[in-house]
Write a structure and sequence with these properties.
Shape: globular
Number of domains: 1
CATH architecture: 3-Layer(aba) Sandwich
Number of helices: 9
Number of strands: 8
Distance between the termini: 39 Å
Strand content: 5-15%
Order of helices and strands: EHEHEHEHHEHHHEEEH
CATH class: Alpha Beta
Structural class: alpha/beta
Helix content: 25-40%
């Protein structure tokens, strides 16, 4: 077993939604350790462990989040002690010693939260959303799927994620756009969610959506679904309260403060 006695916070979301940025903002805190110096893209932990296969067919952008075979939950075939032991052993070499928390970021965490809660019972989860129009435009260089299909994929993935939320003890769903609008405040909320004193953001947060103003728009049917998350056609963003759950009310209340 690993000699790490702290806890894990797992960051997940669709590709090109800001998960790497959020993980860095969390990992910059002095009480958090992050994966560094690995050969994996964006230091994603899914590539650095051998307990759950990660081939070119696993975690495939614009596909994985709605693939039933990649939706891992409690009681599934990976819900075993040996899986946890292998994952911690494989990850351990990439984390510096110490810290109350380890942050691990991989897009596929979006579909593994219920499993990871079983493997790491005190873990917490941060899910990052981004306007489906911007995500589709940012994904254009990675896939041949049409923008309308990418938008549908995002909305379906968000719906599946939402169905998993009631099973999680501690989860924080935030939007990339709210992080851009108030990086200091949202970073403080992330740290409060981990019961840590806030630390200043590690880097300036620039609005990446500005590059996608002339992009495919939500159809009327898509817009009806997107409004649930405060998104409107033309990269429109409406008020949205980040979804947050935590078993301790004091921590939940602090993290909900703007």
């Amino acid at each position: 077993m690993s000699d790490f006695t702290g806890r894990y916070v797992f960051v997940g979301g669709l590709h090109r939604t800001g998960t790497s940025l959020v993980a860095r903002l969390i990992g910059h805190h002095p009480d958090v350790r992050e994966i560094t110096g690995s050969p994996a893209p964006e230091n994603e932990g899914c590539y650095l462990q051998g307990a759950i296969a990660h081939t070119a067919r696993h975690g495939r952008p614009a596909h994985f989040a709605t693939d039933p075979q990649q939706h891992h939950i409690e009681g599934s075939r990976f819900d075993r002690l040996d899986v946890r032991i292998r994952m911690e052993s494989d990850w351990g070499r990439w984390f510096e010693a110490g810290g109350a928390w380890r942050v691990e970021k991989s897009p596929v965490n979006l579909t593994r939260m219920r499993l990871y809660q079983q493997l790491f019972p005190l873990s917490q989860f941060v899910i990052v959303l981004r306007h489906p129009e911007a995500m589709a435009a940012a994904m254009a260089k990675w896939t041949d799927r049409a923008p309308v299909d990418l938008i549908d994929h995002a909305l379906d993935a968000y719906a599946r994620m939402e169905a998993d939320l009631p099973y999680l003890h501690a989860a924080f769903v935030l939007r990339y756009e709210d992080l851009v609008a108030d990086s200091d405040g949202m970073t403080a909320r992330l740290h409060h969610f981990l019961d840590l004193p806030p630390a200043a953001p590690a880097e300036p947060v620039i609005d990446g959506n500005l590059a996608y103003r002339a992009t495919a728009r939500l159809s009327p049917g898509q817009a009806l679904k997107a409004t649930h998350w405060g998104y409107a056609p033309g990269l429109g963003v409406q008020p949205f309260d980040p979804w947050l759950a935590h078993p301790l009310r004091a921590i939940r209340d602090r993290a909900q403060q703007i």
